[in-house]
Amino acid sequence: MASIDLSEIRELTNAELPQLNKLVSESFGYESPHSFFDDFPIWKSSIVKRFGIFSGNRLIAHAGIRFCEMQTDSGVNVPVAMIGAVATDEEFRGQGLSSRILTELCALSEQYQCDWTILWGSEHDFYKKFGFELQGEQFQGQLIELEDLPENAIPKIKRGWNPKIFELLSHEKSGVLLKTEDHEWMSNHKTVNWFYQEEPFAFVGFERGLDLPHMIHEYGGDEKGLKLLFAFILSQDAETTLLGTQKSLQSFGIKEESLIEEYLCLARPHSKKPELKWQPDFWVQGLSAC
Questions:
Q1: Percentage helix, strand, coil, to 5, in the chain?
Q2: pLDDT for 237-254, tens place per residue?
Q3: Between 3.90.1640.10, 3.40.190.290, 3.40.630.30, 3.40.50.2300, what CATH number should domain 139-262 receive?
Q4: Secondary structure (DSSP) of 9-32
Q5: Which of 52, 70, 131, 180 could bond to 268 as cystine, CB 3.0-4.6 Å?
């Protein structure tokens, strides 16, 4: 474990993004030529803030923050901050560097008047020290459980990104509110397999590199067209699961007893708003989970 003079926390410049990609890719176990930015292009986009600690000119610890809003059934949007790309160089671990940055970002979230600060990670005990608790719910259902998928009716599908996908996602009434500036990072995913059919339009987002294997995580458009796309993907991958809310998965015919329930995220309420309670309709789509 190295111990030398370190910089104060500061925001990264665009010129330092390659260092960020290298640090997080190595921390999360990516192997060249695949990298963290392939799966999470949001962290090289202009809509986030990235903060790091340096040893000289070398980035050795980082965490980023995204400010956005969650939509609710009541029509009132809730301001939230999402923290991601939390990583420390292996040589410098154990010195509290991630803790320093997380403390800074939680304070920044409150400065921006966010009701909740949200993140995703497996080290629950570590994040609990900062006030994060497991919150919400999401569900997975095996696509093979769907009983009314068409047989031998492979649609005339197209692959790749289509701007109509973003148009439909940005008009959803639940989940994270997507704005025009979100189109850039969403359309730049290198490891999401987008499938769609033109008329009537339907789409699915399938997998995302190391993060969402065997999973359909974004979908929308014509219901009949969706089931055709589901049938096509199932013919390619029998392990495919569908990610969503309990209501959305049951609407496709997946039985309640077949659903796998998971926590949605780790979340921390604004410390000066004791009345805040996590609401059942809070939802974060797969690609919006930073």
A1: 30, 30, 45
A2: 999 999 999 999 999 989
A3: 3.40.630.30
A4: PEEPPGGGHHHHHHHHHHHHT--T
A5: 131
Condensed to tens digits (0 to 9), the pLDDT of residues 51-94 reads 999 999 999 999 999 999 999 988 899 999 999 999 999 999 99
pLDDT at 149: 82
Domain 10-136+264-269 belongs in CATH node 3.30.1460.10:
no
- What is the number of other CB atoms lying within 10 angstroms of the CB of residue 80? 23
Q: What angle do CA 255, 209, 141 make, to 5 degrees?
A: 5
Length of the chain: 290
Tens of pLDDT, residues 137-168: 999 999 999 877 887 566 689 999 999 999 99
Cα–Cα distance for residue pair 271/254, rounded to 1 Å: 39
Query: Given this model, what pLDDT does residue 73 score?
Result: 87
CB 131 within 8 A of CB 268: yes
Q: Determine how many CB atoms are found less than 10 A away from the CB of residue 245.
A: 18
Q: Are 267 and 115 in contact (CB under 8 A)?
A: no
The pair of structure tokens assigned to 118 is 């949200």
Q: Can you read off the two tokens belonging to residue 39?
A: 């799966």
CA–CA distance, 287 with 283 (Å, rounded to integer): 12
Cis preceding-peptide flag for 200 (omega within 30 of 0) = yes
**Helix intervals (H) in 112-222:** 124-128, 163-169, 183-186
CA distance 98 to 105: 10
